[in-house]
Fold this protein.
Amino acid sequence: GAVVSQHPSRVICKSGTSVKIECRSLDFQATTMFWYRQFPKQSLMLMATSNEGSKATYEQGVEKDKFLINHASLTLSTLTVTSAHPEDSSFYICSASHGGGRDEAFFGQGTRLTVV
Amino acid sequence: EDQVTQSPEALRLQEGESSSLNCSYTVSGLRGLFWYRQDPGKGPEFLFTLYSAGEEKEKERLKATLTKKESFLHITAPKPEDSATYLCAVQGSDSWGKLQFGAGTQVVVTP
């Protein structure tokens, strides 16, 4: 399967600061990447769709000014959690797919964010 | 709205005890149904994609099947290393690549 790398795997930050999470497709180009959030014992909830060269599309209820997404190249998307608060503590996961008729998505290893 | 329901929520098996996980779905035009495995603190690992009713796919001790309303993941003679949460997700024809996930089934296989 394709490789998607996410960094960092864990981060602890102070309340009010911003945190950037990177998602890279290592062996293929991804025009679209997706960002998910997962709370303990719950499933993945889609936050936004990241489109290379254009604005991200956010799901209902997700604050676009709080969760800034940039997809500057065909292999890199970033999620910045701005002015983080303890309630933003969660497991964030990105995914990417080949496109072109192959629909399976490959996921990064996830980022555990803890805001103190 | 696409919906995915997985059952049971949790399953405890003895090594070698075969069982099946269920994924019921409603979607406007199924583009694909996906099975993933997720270990604690990790991202989901792709297992299978099923596209049409009647399709089956196998990988080692796992076999996935699909009907028009549900999918099953059969685990044959499981080993402790099969312990994980198994996630089912659907992609609708108008979803633009988005996946709708079920809550998952947590499987524990004891020696």
